[in-house]
Amino acid sequence: MNLKIALLGGDGVGPEVLAQAVKCLQSVEVTFNHHFTFSPALVGATAIDQTGNPLPDETLEICKNSNAVLFGAIGDPKYDNDPIAKVRPEQGLLKLRKELGLFSNIRPVRVYPSLIDRSPLKKEIISGVDFTIYRELTGGIYFGEKKLNEKGTVASDLCEYSEKEISRMAHLAFKAAKNRRKKVTLIDKANVLETSRLWRKVVTRIGESYPEIELDFLFVDNAAMQMILNPAQFDVILTNNMFGDIISDEASVITGSIGLLASASVGTDFAMFEPIHGSYPQATGLDIANPIAAILSAAMLIEHHGLNEEAQAIYMAVENAIINNVVTSDLNPDSRFGTDYVGNYIANSIVDTD
Amino acid sequence: MNLKIALLGGDGVGPEVLAQAVKCLQSVEVTFNHHFTFSPALVGATAIDQTGNPLPDETLEICKNSNAVLFGAIGDPKYDNDPIAKVRPEQGLLKLRKELGLFSNIRPVRVYPSLIDRSPLKKEIISGVDFTIYRELTGGIYFGEKKLNEKGTVASDLCEYSEKEISRMAHLAFKAAKNRRKKVTLIDKANVLETSRLWRKVVTRIGESYPEIELDFLFVDNAAMQMILNPAQFDVILTNNMFGDIISDEASVITGSIGLLASASVGTDFAMFEPIHGSYPQATGLDIANPIAAILSAAMLIEHHGLNEEAQAIYMAVENAIINNVVTSDLNPDSRFGTDYVGNYIANSIVDTD
Ligand SMILES: [Mg+2]
Ligand SMILES: [Mg+2]
User: Fold this and answer.
1) Quick one: which ligand is closest to B276's CA?
2) What is the CB neighbour count within 10 angstroms for residue A285?
3) CB 3.0–4.6 Å: which of A140, B113, B209, B326 could bond A241 by disulfide?
4) Cβ contact (<8 Å) for B228 and A120?
5) Residue that is last in its domain, among B268, B293, B315
6) pLDDT tens-digit profile of B110-125?
């Protein structure tokens, strides 16, 4: 397979962790006989510094001409601490999502048995956790009409959803469940909210065309409890933008290894893959950042393009590194291994087991 | 002090746990020389069965003529499983809150050292947790305008807040913090929502008249993480209706003892106190329900009326029962003690330590 991949390293440790992901993709090329082309492009604070624009036209062009975007991280304290800054690095990411029509955010959460002690939850609760969250990313209350009366004494936010916005999310979630444990849990508040009732109606109807998938419903307040009491019950979680924001962030801490979490943002025509961790500016250039989330993002990228076996090879190489304790110091304080060493080790462990 | 207390036992185990709370209040009367009058009244499924109305006028009258309402629990499977039921027990509670103007829900969460092993979180994380959540209860998106277009393809919910709704909540939270560790954390999503920005503005301004109180802000997605990573950081949490629903339910499971949680719903003129657990219908009359949440609700009631020392005496009596393992079987599977025995034990341990 030929794949054109836009490489948007961004700020802080973004470029260095992305470099490790590229090594792994190159290892996949050789091992499985594919051809990947990498096109680096500027984004974020780095782009502002060099062009004045957090998302230069050239970057957008490169992304639109690629099969997928591999993204590092964004954000620089220089801009965060400047209240009068007119352009901000984060605007680059928001604009990119919008321009590419990325309406869905996908976050896998799984526990690595050898890291289970890092979880804030007890072992028996977190053991076996392996689920994926499908969060709607461009609708709902975060993007609805905002009002403030003239006196500044009454404010409002509108949460709106259309059948179309819901159904494209539902299809993604049901399709994902087919390749997993065949269960979708819709998180909503249908006992109170009209938008939630529409979600439930549309998702239920679409579920009928996926008869092999079990469809469950959970109110968001109960879901926030279940994520702590029994997270292993989840397979595919489907939810709106705001509930997804809250529940996916809650979910990101239960394994105790936030540095290992990758994510995808997917639309009809484009898809982007990135670690959920930030730009970690104080670690820039120190060769200490954990490259695993970036490497797993690359695995999600090729999996998205149907290279399942190849993605599995990356997942196994990552597990192998974790089991053998070839990890950065965030996972093992006694570790002598840096970003680059761990990246090489994982890239070199990618093998075709067939 | 003279206090008129309306007793709304409600459904399931509600009446039996409330009976234990009354014993404790009677013990407070004798020990501290107060006079409490108890007026029982019907509510919920019991009220439907006897009068056809989940909140009979007489009950509302009794509540309005009392200094406080002590509430048991509501809900009966007979109505839950009947999709064509026109009146539902829960309507009684919703109407009561509305009629009494109870705009604020207050939920204390604390860990009992002797029960710490019950928590789904690791001991070092849950140890020392002791905070109270102030949730706005009658505004926001749960009560905002709901729309569905004619075709049924677009739905919306409006989240609206006024300065007045926010400021009365803020005063409650700051006042509560005065008697605690002097810290208020406002949970919002001010980086995205207009209503959250109004909350932040109003709460910040009111905070200036409480200079001894530290005011912190936390985005709701981050709060959902912090509740798992470091819940001991919280003292008083202040938040809107929906965020409060999610965060307070998440908080209710971190101690592992949901059967011990009491709550208050407070308005300008009235206040109601109730366990957060449900009516637990399958346990009705079996003398196995845990009475502690109801007893702690009674403690919150008298504390609300300024009887701090008396409330402390109840809290100490409860702790004493837990430490001596005089608890129901939900807390200790080997327990031989029933609802009534535990209630008597706690009531008899209430002493004036002065
Ligand atoms: Mg978030
Ligand atoms: Mg709730």
Assistant:
1) 2
2) 11
3) A140
4) yes
5) B268
6) 999 999 999 999 999 9
CA closest to B163 among chain A residues: A153
Q: Which amino acid is at B84?
A: I
Specify the DSSP class assigned to residue A213.
S
Cα distances from A296 to residues A15, A18, A260, A316, B343, in angstroms, run 15, 11, 8, 11, 55
CA of B210 to the centre of ligand 1 (A): 31
Strands laid side by side in the A214-219 sheet: A35-40, A2-10, A68-73, A271-275, A262-267, A102-110, A130-136, A236-239, A183-188, A214-219
- Containing domain of residue B247, as a range? 103-268
pLDDT band with cut points at 50, 70 and 90 for residue B77: confident
Residue at A263 is within a domain? no
Same domain, A217 and A296: no
Pair (A122, A212) in one structural domain: yes
Question: Chain A within 8 Å of B94 (Cβ-Cβ)?
Answer: no
Let me know the angle formed at the C-alpha of B113 by B112 and B118, rounded to the nearest 5 degrees. Answer: 75
CA distance B329 to B289: 8
Separation of alpha carbons A9 and A44, rounded Å? 9
Q: Could you tell me the CATH number of the domain that includes residue B65?
A: 3.40.718.10
Catalytic residue flag (residue A142): yes
Burial environment of residue B317 by CB neighbours within 10 A (0 to 12, 13 to 18, 19 or more): buried
Quick one: DSSP state of residue B121? Answer: B
User: Is the same domain home to B112 and B261?
Assistant: yes
Does residue A334 have an active-site annotation?
A: no
The full 3-state SS of A76-135, as one line of letters, equals CHHHHCCCCCCCCHHHHHHHHHHHHCEEEEEEEEECCHHHHHHCCECHHHHCCCEEEEEE
Question: How does residue B237 score in pLDDT terms, banded at 50, 70 and 90?
Answer: very high
**B160 and B144 Cβ atoms separated by less than 8 Å:** yes
* Residue B164's pLDDT band (cuts 50, 70, 90): very high
B228 and B107, same structural domain? yes
Band (B321; pLDDT cuts 50, 70, 90): very high
Q: Are residues B245 and B334 in the same domain?
A: no
Domains in chain A, number: 2
- Of A212, A229, A257, the one marking the end of a domain is A257
Largest distance between two CA atoms of chain A: 69
Phi-psi region of A75 (alpha: psi -120 to 50; beta: other; left: phi over 0): left
- With 0-12 / 13-18 / 19 or more C-beta atoms within 10 angstroms meaning exposed / middle / buried, residue B118 is middle
Looking at residue B352, what is its pLDDT? 87
Using a 10 angstrom Cβ sphere, with 0-12 exposed, 13-18 middle and 19 or more buried, the burial of residue B354 is exposed
- Angle, CA B24 vertex, CA B23 and CA B27 arms, to 5°: 90
A153 contacts B162? CB cut-off 8 A: yes
Handedness of CA B177, B182, B185, B186 (dihedral sign): positive
Percentage of chain B lying above the pLDDT 90 cut? 92
Strand partners, A136: A104
Q: Is pLDDT at B87 greater than 90 in this prediction?
A: no
Neighbours of A269 (CB within 10 A): 9
Q: Which residues on chain B are in Cβ contact (under 8 Å) with A250?
A: 221, 224-225, 227-228, 250
pLDDT score recorded for residue B339: 98
Complex-level ipTM:
0.94
B81 and B165 both lie in a single domain: no
Distance CA B108, CA B123 (A): 19
- Say how far apart CA A350 and CA A343 lie, in whole Å: 11
My answer on whether B127 and B233 are in the same domain is yes
B281 with B260, same domain: the answer is no
The ligand with the least distance to the CA atom of B247 is: 2
Stretches in chain A below the pLDDT threshold 50: none
Inform me whether the C-beta atom of residue A205 falls under 8 Å from chain B C-beta atoms: no
